[in-house]
Structure of AraC-like ligand binding domain-containing protein:
Amino acid sequence: MNNKFSVSLRNQSFYIDYFDSWKSNKIMKTYHLHQDYEIFYLLEGECVYLINGKTWYVEKDQLVLISKNVMHKTRKVKGKNYARMVINFREDFLPEAEQELVHKLFHCSPPVVPIPVAKQSGINRIIQNLYFEYQNKENYLNLYGRTLLTQLLIESLRIVEEKGESSGGKVNLTYGKGSQDISEIVTYINNSFSSDVSLSSLSRQFHRNEQYISRLFKQVTGCNIVDYVNAVRINEAKRLLLETDMKIYQIAHRIGYSNPVHLWRVFTRITGTSPNQYREDHSNIEAETDDSR
């Protein structure tokens, strides 16, 4: 396995994407991970899904459930094409009462879930409605999106509980040691970026010397630790600017900066605009905030 992987950073709590390999020849060259949960739905054809050291062969009308911070990638079966829908969401996109569904599905269930024939049209309809809402940015998108996503999670959990186990085939693989070390460090940063995350603190946390972590992190991810921590923090700042009415100083403290001036400098350097200007420029597409959540 190629020891490199990439980290996907999204400044949205909910995201959905359609891909058709008949119309595009783009491929996922490296493993990647992200801070949100992923539901992969195969609409047509077949493909291979590599998840945390195992290979799963996925067929039409199967769901693939990827927990946050799990290394994965897709690849084509030789001579075959496929079409898929991918839904990514953060846990806090859902009301607290529904988050137990996420835990059961993504932490206690098999990653590949075949959909029974009797439920295929219903699952397809929910996902198509989600995609339509997301693409058209209808009024109350977040509220309706949460409702549809909750419906999808419930239906998926019912399937898992009825069937017991996935029937997807699997073949054991292994990760390179260095890649696994960095995956664990990336996961830690993604979960702890609001606290003191530095090379020295990572060295203490993972019982590795600083030179080893620094060199390997650059080798595997293509960036240094400081730049990655800043990227994660600014990505979260962008999300908070779009989805909340928090003040700049509140956002700075929430994401791990000691003062708003530091946030302003790093944000401007990375995005080319100030936090206030970013919020203003995107105000016309800012997702509605559900105060009752």
